[in-house]
Every structure is written in C-alpha cells, then in structure tokens.
Amino acid sequence: MTKTEGMQAFQDAFGAEPTDLFTAAGRINVIGEHIDYCGGKVFPAALNLRCNIYARKTGGKTVRLAFRGIDGVVELCVDTLDAYRELKIGNYQAGVAYYLQETGVEIVGCDLYYDCTVPFGSGLSSSAAIEVATAVAFCEYAGVAYDKVQLALISQRAENKYAGVNCGIMDQFASAMGKKDHAVLLDCSDLSYEYVPLRLGEYALVVANCNKPHNLVESKYNVRRQEVETALKTLQTKADVKCLAEISPKLFNELKYLLSGVVAKRAEHVVMECDRVSKAVAALKTGDLVELGRLLNESHYSLRDLYEVTGKELDALTAFARKEPSCLGSRMIGAGFGGCTISIVKKTETEGFIRRVGKAYHDAIGYKASFYETSIEDGITVEKL
Ligand code: GLA
Known about the structure:
single chain, alpha+beta, four-stranded antiparallel sheet
C-alpha cells in the first residue's frame, strides 16, 4: 500500500484525513535465539517490513481502530481499558494503552488505521511492531516526551500481561531501537546495547517464511520458559548466578550432572547459544562471513536438537538452503515452530537460490515458502502528513 493509498484507506474508514504516520519495524535476529529471557545477548535488526499507522487525534475518550483487509472498526473506551483482553483484534492496542495509562500517560481519543506489512505469525514480530507503533501514537497525542526503550518495555509488558505471551524484550527493543544497516547487540540482562554495522559485502540476507499454518506457538513458548527457569533454579544451588547466560560453557560442563532430560538440553542450548553470539559478532566485525554462516547453522541445529523448536518445515527450508553453494549458513529465527528463516547468500545468486530452494521446499512439504525483499531500517519513524 502506498502512502496515498494508506491515506485514502484512512479516509474511507473514518471520513476524515489522517495527519500523522507512525511506524515501527518488524525484525530479524541474526543470532541469539531463545536466550533473551535468560539474560543473554541477542543480535536483532529492524526491517523494512513494518506496522504503519495512519492517524488523527480526535480528543475525547474513544480510540477507533481500523485495519487493512479487515472490515469494520474496533472501538476502545479509554476509561475501561482493562476490558479488552479477550479481543482477537485490538487487544495489543488496548494492552499498550492500559500500561501507558498505568505509567501516567493520558490516553487521548484518536483514529488509527493499520497497514501492517509484517506478515502475521511469521516470526518477524508483527505483534511487537504493532505494540511499539501504537505506543508512539498514544504518546504523541498525549503530548508526552517518550523514551524509546521505555516504550519497548511497556510494549513487552502489554504482550506479557495483557495478551498472555511471556516473551522477552528482544522484539520490542529491535522494533523501537533498530538502526538502518545495523544490527543491535542487546544485552538483555541490563538493556545495554551496541550498534554493529551489518556489513555483508557480496552477500545478502534472504528471509524466507515456511508458511506452516498456525500451531499454538504461544503455549509452547511459555513451556520453554518454564523449563529454563527450572534449569536455572537447579544450577543456582551450586553456582552464584542471576541468569543462565552468566554460565560459561566450561562451568556448564562441570554442573550439568545436576540436570536431566529436556531441562538439561534446554539449558545447554542457552549456554552454547550465548557463546555463539559473541563469536558471531566477532566474525562479523572482522568480515569472516564463512564463520558467521557456520555459527548460524550451529544455532539452527541446537534449536532443532536441544531446544526442539524447529519442526520439519523449518528444518527442510534451512537444509535446502545449505545445499546451495552460494549459501554460507541458514537458520530459523524468532520463537520457531513455524515462521521464518534467514540465509546468507551471495548477492548475484539470490534469484537462483530462491527458485531452487522454493521448488525443493514445495516438492518436499506440499506448499510454498515465501521469500521477502528485505532491508535493514530504523525502528520507529514519525511523520506529519
Ligand atoms: C519471540 C519472543 C522473543 C524471543 C524469541 C526467541 O520472538 O518474542 O522475546 O524470545 O521469540 O528468541
């Protein structure tokens, strides 16, 4: 949808012209999966796929929401923001408004039209993009200065406590704080961060969606969180650590006798994935893309064998990618169980890569994968129309 089309869609939904365009980004994660809620360092980057909100302040107590591709308007009353938890559409917005209000931000009536180009359920964080962009709109209309990191935290709270998904901070942070052509090395134990140029030279990151139909990601995700919490409690009986990410591979080897079964496997993934992030960042900084690709592959194998969040679709898509001589590495990203992969592919070969991997995947799985044209962009943008 072009900007003109977005403005027209707003006009059709609300009978007036929008005055502002607020956007926040979807994200990829280069490496560091399922460790943000263990105090690990993650390495996401914000995408050109975004939640775009065409908006107008109306004043009063009603927030009206309209969505591209969905008929009708959802109305939220700012006096009863606790009442929308069961909404299928609009609950993220209500949650963000609710927690902003809790921090003292006055939620002012407005009309918001959503054109979200982050595919839903893709593992590219459409929900974080919606939450963060909505938080920006509410703060702008309340006339309060906002800190982007605070908006990310409020958005995460909305997702945890209002929508009931116990996610970490990675997605909302990337959506708010992403920087063009950079990945963000975010330390989730204290939210300190560093921007690292995502310089891939002759290579490009190809993002592919395995298109597995919806499969209860949220409940399986919450189970993984409980498993690593169990691991941490057990390891804390012998080690003075606040989070699993503080445990080095060496210390883990000494203590792993304390753990068994899936809990041991989950903890091993976390410890080794943290180690891979440091190595991957070093490899990127020195331009060693072969090593970076190898670490991406290792990350996928660990998510497959130890964390068990991949599934045959993501395994097939990454395996076909790795068979291509032009591909240095490939892995699933996000929560898993479905959704997207990233692959490092020689720029001049991406067309053939997409064609061959797409065909092999279709033949093996029975339906098509989607490939996206992506670029790395800023997190939040605010524009007067
Ligand atoms: C989802 C969550 C994130 C993170 C990833 C896995 O995207 O929202 O907080 O845990 O899964 O790395």
